[in-house]
What we know:
Shape of chain A: globular
Oligomer: heterodimer
Radius of gyration of chain B: 25 Å
Largest sheet of chain A: 6 strands, mixed
CATH topology of chain A: Rossmann fold
Radius of gyration of chain A: 19 Å
Number of strands of chain A: 10
Number of strands of chain B: 0
Strand content of chain B: under 5%
Number of helices of chain A: 10
CATH class of chain A: Alpha Beta
Helix content of chain B: over 70%
Distance between the termini of chain A: 62 Å
Largest interface: A-B, 32 and 29 residues
Helix content of chain A: 40-55%
Strand content of chain A: 15-25%
Order of helices and strands of chain B: HHHHHHHHHHHHHHHHHHHH
CATH superfamily of chain A: P-loop containing nucleotide triphosphate hydrolases
Number of domains of chain A: 1
CATH architecture of chain A: 3-Layer(aba) Sandwich
Amino acid sequence: xxxxxxxxxxxxxxxxxxxxxxxxxxxxxxxxxxxxxxxxxxxxxxxxxxxxxxxxxxxxxxxxxxxxxxxxxxxxxxxxxxxxxxxxxxxxxxxxxxxxxxxxxxxxxxxxxxxxxxxxxxxxxxxxxxxxxxxxxxxxxxxxxxxxxxxxxxxxxxxxxxxxxxxxxxxxxxxxxxxxxxxxxxxxxxxxxxxxxxxxxxxxxxxxxxxxxxxxxxxxxxxxxxxxxxxxxxxxxxxxxxxxxxxxxxxxxxxxx
Amino acid sequence: xxxxxxxxxxxxxxxxxxxxxxxxxxxxxxxxxxxxxxxxxxxxxxxxxxxxxxxxxxxxxxxxxxxxxxxxxxxxxxxxxxxxxxxxxxxxxxxxxxxxxxxxxxxxxxxxxxxxxxxxxxxxxxxxxxxxxxxxxxxxxxxxxxxxxxxxxxxxxxxxxxxxxxxxxxxxxxxxxxxxxxxxxxxxxxxxxxxxxxxxxxxxxxxxxxxxxxxxxxxxxxxxxxxxxxxxxxxxxxxxxxxxxxxxxxxxxxxxxxxxxxxxxxxxxxxxxxxxxxxxxxxxxxxxxxxxxxxxxxxxxxxxxxxxxxxxxxxxxxxxxxxxxxxxxxxxxxxxxxxxxxxxxxxxxxxxxxxxxxxxxxxxxxxxxxxxxxxxxxxxxxxxxxxxxxxxxxxxxxxxxxxxxxxxxxxxxxxxxxxxxxxxxxxxxxxxxxxxxxxxxxxxxxxxxxxxxxxxxxxxxxxxxxxxxxxxxxxxxxxxxxxxxxxxxxxxxxxxxxxxxxxxxx
Lengths: 257, 506
């Protein structure tokens, strides 16, 4: 049974449609790459799945059951890393994780053991008692990652998780995602980074202006679309800009008197 | 879990969004002590006035029934409590409702919206109760003690509970009334206008609270009347005011609750959208300056002033209070002197509130202040506002009033900006943060004294000439000082250790 299934998900703001009729599913061990240019509706979809936004239409199913019937139970099974880790600046890293653990009803001893191990692994242990306000963007992102995984979720929802991470942390995170998937977790992974999705995902959804233009197993989808590389498929199917022309325009503007 | 949420919301209410936790805890303790101190002084004043022992030593007649005389002092304590509650509510206005950080951090957690709402509400009640207790701690004990002097311990207990109840009721009313206004704005004003409306409402409330405090009138009288029957002296109560107090408390509580519920839903859905419209500044201001830096800094400073919530509330509330003070002092012709004082003092004070360092990095790159350009930028900002808000309206009264106001403002601006060496809103002054209460207190004292110089001068030609000469002397003195200062050393001061106070989208 699929861990997450999305059917006809739509979000409208007045006459503007941010996401239109998007459908996909992720099973245990699956990594779904949700790919699209900026403003294509990736984060809106993520926010609808995580309960930050109310969908205008469509259905979100968790293990075949409608999420809206028991939102709290669904949230117990997910870990979410937002596009930009906006955390409480007045809390220290440790206090933030402690708050999340308490609200997720993680036993104290388990929390302390896991938080310590994860903070050490993400090289944050020495900074655990500093206020988050003093953290760099990458440090905040790592705290958000730890808070999303403390309770060992079966579904990990990552919205551009590599933003702000240093090279080492990025490589570690890629391997973490692969290992979690191998351990039977489902990973929903929204990103504009084609190479990362191509390397990690076994299924993709390609978005363009809120519309789903392609979906399915990565290799199968590329074959059906007639492309060999994901980047070519992205430029051909999803990208709205003539990238070469835009680059030329930018250089002209920079060099003009 | 609920306890953790309440604790979290309470911390969120009382602590700034950034900074080191150790420093924050220190400043929280200091803030509590600071808030408790004036109430304690007021209460100690009562002891001095009514203590039988002190009266005996001074050879004064012992007073067996001090209730009627102390009744008016009770009103002063009530008024103080209400004013402080109002100021803090207005100050913490935007922290009471959940924002996008709460939405992003709490919504994905397995906690129901209802539980978050109740925890948030409980934290507000908890913080408000601690705050009222802190502000009124001394008076809650000392006031019943002096009123019950010469009677039984039971009477003291009765008066203690009566006073404590009324202080809580009056503070709750003030909080709810201020918050109701925010709720009404939330519901009635479109989101894109909310920030502007919020700034005006906060400024108006600040001025109103100050005016009520100074005048000693307003809703505090309703609650004073309610106190009398609770204290066993119904003869001192006005039944109409008692009914008014109870009705006002209930209505304000209901409206505040409805407003909070509406704001909570919007906040947790990320719909409390801040005003992101650009603030248009006339194009000529971008060309007014000797150097590119000056040309760029002037529009930046004006946008910084009006887009920053703290800065705009500070300037607007000072202006509104000055208008009220001017109208209370005498004819409307006095108002420009008060308004001039308010603008000339409040804007340099606002300069010391820093915007996001991210907004000012370009100035840090470009600034080469080996001259008095920073001073000139600051002065231009103040004079632009003086021109629009004070001098142009003053001309409607008479050119004489405008000249006297201008001379008064010259003296103030030249003195207040003499040591100004940074671009407005780029300097997060630690020194100012620690002394801002003192600054505000001195500014309020000045409001009672400085405008009278203008009123004095406008009465006769000779006096007006003296004031103008004084202004010219100040300008001359300032030129000499600046020439000496900038001739040798003029380091630009940037304090990067301070975390941002107000984030702007310039």
